Prior knowledge:
By secondary structure, this protein is of the alpha+beta class. Helices cover 43% and strands 18% of the residues. The longest helix has 49 residues, at 279-327.
Amino acid sequence: METGYDRFAGRVRPLVAEPLLGQYARALDGVGHQVVGEQHGKPDILVLASVTDVARTLRTSATVGDWITGNMFVPDTTDRAMLNELELAAINEVGALTEVCRRPHDRLDSTTELVRASLARRVPPGGLTRLASHTEDWAGVEHGQIHPLRLVSLRYVEHLDFYENRVAAQLVDRLREHLSRRIRELTTLADGLADLDEYEQSLRRTQSWRKLERLSKLVAHAVSDAAAPSALIQDSLRELRRVRTKILALRDSIAYRHASRRAHVPMRLVRTNLFSNDGRYRRVGSLWDRWAVHETKAKELQREVDESFLESYDAYVAALTVRACGVLGFTPIDPDAPVPTAGSAVQLHSPSGELTCSLDQDGGMRVLSGDQVLVRVLAIGHDLSAAAPDSVVRDWIDRVDEACSASPTPLVVAYPGLRSSRAGLPGPIRRRVHSTGPHSRTRARSQELIAIVPITPLEIEGEERLARALRWTVLGLSMVRQYPLTLSTGARRPQLTADWFRTSGKGGELELLRRPSAMERALLLQSFDDHGRRSGGLRASRQEEFLRELAGSLDACAAQFDLFQTCPLCAGSATALQPRDRDTFHCRCESCETFWGTRVCGPCGERYPILWPKNAVVDAGDEDRLDMTAGADILALPCPTAVPGTRFRCPWCKHCAGMPGCGCTLD
């Protein structure tokens, strides 16, 4: 049985039938080579090219700082917006092609047909032989002579199905195909630039000032490279559509209808008399040559892009992961450090702690806190929103869910999908192919799919949506799983009570509900010291050692509250954490008035994290709108009908306290 390295599971496994593009990798001379799966999920041609272009720029980057400051949007917008040589030739020569198709040269040819005897003009020699053997065509026999009823007659007709006209007819199809592809490409590019305009417009809306700052920098960087070609794209689209309209009109022409469009015509044109001596046909032949040269170059370039795409997409998503950590406030400790390669890492820090982004041999990126893997970001080359029947797309997503269940760590899966492709999907499927937040129904699962996010250089919000997915593991799940913090005290119990800790049901453990003040810390240590002296259970040296260890553990736990009490948006430390019942807490930043914490879902009883910036106006009806209105600054989604920031949907069971009247759904 053939095997391959399963990038989801992180180990060698048998290859499944028709794997997703990028799901498997084979080790060859120490380099991970992707195993290509079914072709239905192949990304859009413009996505393939743009990812390859951006990755080519990333490979020339010398430092991590270059990754942070570089433009991750389409870098060669101007080149793509300009008309190429074939398109300029089509614009100039469409008149000659129209003349040839509408008024083609013809040749005389002869044909035979069975007609009434009175209509026969010329009877070939074989016609009399046939008459002698077909008595049904006789009118009768008189005096030994046959009187014919029907005769085979020879007729001369115009013949249009010859080489030169076949070239013209097939050129119509080839130009139509090329122009349609280019119009689709430029339309996709224009949609990306329209997103820039929409983001620029959103800078005037009321929103979190931190998101406003990030958004303005992101738009300014992208606009500096992409604003100029916007008018050029529209001009090119106008010209291409005009030419395509003329080409489409030739489908009812004489040459197009009568010359064979299926007969094989070699790309290298044969110089016949018509192509050499007739002015109209000579111009059509020249246009065919332009198409052949362009097609040859395009196929070679596409072959190179296809071969390097999966590796390029891994590099693109890896760089975007480091940038997404920057959105969360984690910046490189050494911006001048070399860019990571397979097996190396980037050290990041923020007031709330430190992270490590480690690049695996298979191209995946692990995000670690100390030695603990918080999440793995895995890029697959399969477009989960590609044009396919709904049942096929649903099967792709189910296979991603199934593959992720074999992962030893939480996963964020990135794929090269476009908004235009997602827009045509049914709502439930669309929400599955673009979702942030845990997919499992319980927080107890250690292996869970955190997000499926579409990321391409054509959608500027990819950085924010990836950051929102990472926030779930860096902050959201940590708040749920680590709070309250546990402190081991051996077999001893404190002899005082306080509102900042409680004794655990397990003997010898304290649960810290908030960071203790210096006085509270001293009182707790004094309590253990007094109890030890009264009981006399330990010698003085052992007692001092116990207190030193307890003080160190207490300080370490207190330091871990930096994660909970540092503002996720402005990184301010002027915050107040309020412990609440059922192991939940609420925290508010005095600087930017953002609040965050945990709440309990009534129906499923699970805790879930929340984050709400001041002035947030969040549209959570669609993930694309969520990218625009909230970006990375949100965890659990708000109820759309409640007062902003007061009611949220449980990410585990999807329940909202306002259901069913609030409009929230369980899908």
